[in-house]
TrEMBL record:
NAD(+) binds at residues 13-18, 36, 96, 101, 123, 147, 279. Pfam families: 3HCDH, 3HCDH_N. One of its GO terms (molecular function) is oxidoreductase activity, acting on the CH-OH group of donors, NAD or NADP as acceptor. GO terms for biological process: fatty acid metabolic process. Belongs to the 3-hydroxyacyl-CoA dehydrogenase family. Pathway: Lipid metabolism; butanoate metabolism. The keyword DNA-binding does not apply. Residues 191-287 form the 3-hydroxyacyl-CoA dehydrogenase C-terminal domain. The record marks 144 as: Important for catalytic activity. InterPro entries: 3-OHacyl-CoA_DH, 3-OHacyl-CoA_DH_CS, 3-OHacyl-CoA_DH_NAD-bd, 3HC_DH_C, 6-PGluconate_DH-like_C_sf, 6PGD_dom2, NAD(P)-bd_dom_sf. Residues 10-187 form the 3-hydroxyacyl-CoA dehydrogenase NAD binding domain. Keywords: NAD, Oxidoreductase. This is 3-hydroxyacyl-CoA dehydrogenase family protein.
């Protein structure tokens, strides 16, 4: 396949990430199949995409006709064999569990045309772990979108040692056609670029706070005013979920056995108290619960 030639897309997993990645594909002009094992997830995804497009039309970002055309390019199915059968390019966005992703890649290798690229949107799983269950390692890579994909412009394309140049070029070209800005990581590394830099900022912010150097509120103000970040690190932890911060570090600790990888004391305390950020109404900051409607 020539770089940029992907015309028929298949997105596997219609959750938080998948439904919007599929919408980007349809907006880029690709006939896009969306596959999910759960019919209710497909239903929710369709409703959400119709609402996203209605807002874009309202704001003058695209015409009603273009929105209707893009929505018309989406096809929804619970059957992977139907979604993958004619795909040039597959983006997998199912839950973050290696066994589940390997099962999907094994099936995709059997069901998708031989020329098709198989990409994973995983935030933490290296594509080499998925390439190994296929007979097309050269056509496998990570294509890491950010949440929410319709808003966040960056895509990290990450190759593994056997990924071909043509596959990397096809992933970069597809991301550009979707209106995203791709960057290429030439080696697999856990956390890729953005999450590694973010982790370093979070670690330092927690060290400064736990060392009594400044309050967490003042650290947030310093980062926002001094570095022009839209959110401070503590606000961001509340936004993403303190449970997520805790689980990521516990996972890294389990993988490495390194005590230094354990969650920071102040994260562990909040996790234990169920103060997980916005989702629980309290984390570093307190969030008034929405009024019942
Ligand atoms: N949520 C984020 O902020 C974010 C950001 C970047 C990358 N990611 C990555 O995207 C992937 C998906 O994350 P998400 O937040 O969209 O998850 P999610 O739980 O919202 O959606 C996953 C969907 O996959 C479906 N699914 C599960 N097994 C399946 C299978 N075998 N075949 C088809 N569908 C299946 C589920 O029914 C669900 O609808 C993960 O790999 C995650 O690391 C997530």
């Amino acid at each position: 396949m020539e770089p940029g030639a992907a015309r028929r897309l298949c997105v596997v997993g219609a959750g938080t990430m998948g439904h919007q990645i599929a919408m980007l594909g349809a907006l880029a002009g690709c006939a896009t199949h969306v596959v999910d094992v759960r019919p209710d997830a497909l239903e929710r995804a369709q409703v959400a995409n119709r609402a996203h497009m209605a807002r874009w039309v309202e704001r003058g970002r695209l015409t009603a006709q273009d929105a209707a055309d893009a929505l018309g390019r989406l096809r929804w199915t619970t059957r992977l064999e139907e979604g993958a059968a004619d795909a040039d390019f597959v983006i997998e966005a199912v839950i973050e569990r290696l066994e589940d992703k390997q099962a999907v890649f094994t099936a995709l290798d059997r069901l998708a045309p031989a020329h098709a690229v198989l990409a994973t949107n995983s935030s933490t799983i290296r594509s080499s772990f998925l390439a190994s269950v296929t007979a097309r390692a050269d056509r496998v890579c990570n294509m890491h979108f950010f949440n929410p994909p319709l808003v966040m412009e960056l895509v990290e394309v990450v190759v593994h040692p056997a990924t071909s140049e043509a596959t990397a070029a096809a992933a970069l070209a597809l991301a550009r056609r979707m209106g995203r800005t791709p960057v290429l990581l030439r080696k697999e590394i856990s956390g890729f670029v953005v999450n590694r830099i973010l982790a370093a900022i979070m670690d330092e912010a927690l060290r400064l706070y736990e060392g009594g150097i400044a309050s967490f509120e003042d650290i947030d103000i310093a980062v926002k005013k001094g570095l022009r970040h839209p959110m401070g690190p503590f606000e961001l932890m509340d936004f993403n979920g303190i449970d997520v911060a805790y689980n990521v570090r516990m996972q890294r600790y389990r993988e490495t056995g390194d005590e230094l990888q354990k969650p920071a004391r102040s994260i562990e305390e909040r996790y234990g108290r169920g103060e997980w950020g916005r989702k629980t109404g309290k984390g570093w900051y307190a969030y008034p619960r929405p009024e019942p409607s």
